[in-house]
Specification:
By secondary structure, the protein is mostly helical. It has a domain of about 50 residues. Helix content is about 60%, strand content about 0%. The N and C termini lie far apart (about 70 Å). Keywords: Membrane, Transmembrane, Transmembrane helix. This is DUF805 domain-containing protein.
Length: about 70
């Protein structure tokens, strides 16, 4: 009775809409963190790729940040 209902167009549209919302909610903070610590903001997009997100987090956590190396005067 409900077997084909799960795969109707409405369900798939809702799925992609939620995926977009979650992606935006995750990428924006990652983008801002990367920019704030001195790396290019586009690195925040890596947070969406399954293994790259872990590598990005460890890279941010354990690398020397470019913002720390600049001369403040």
């Amino acid at each position: 009775m409900m077997g084909n209902y799960m795969f109707s167009n409405g369900m798939w549209f809702g799925h992609w809409l939620w995926m977009l919302v979650i992606a935006v909610l995750v990428v924006i903070p990652a983008w801002r963190i990367c920019k704030r610590i001195g790396y290019p903001g586009w690195m925040g997009i890596l947070i969406l790729i399954p293994l790259a997100n872990l590598i990005l987090l460890y890279f941010i956590a354990f690398s020397n940040w470019p913002i720390d190396n600049r001369a403040d005067g």
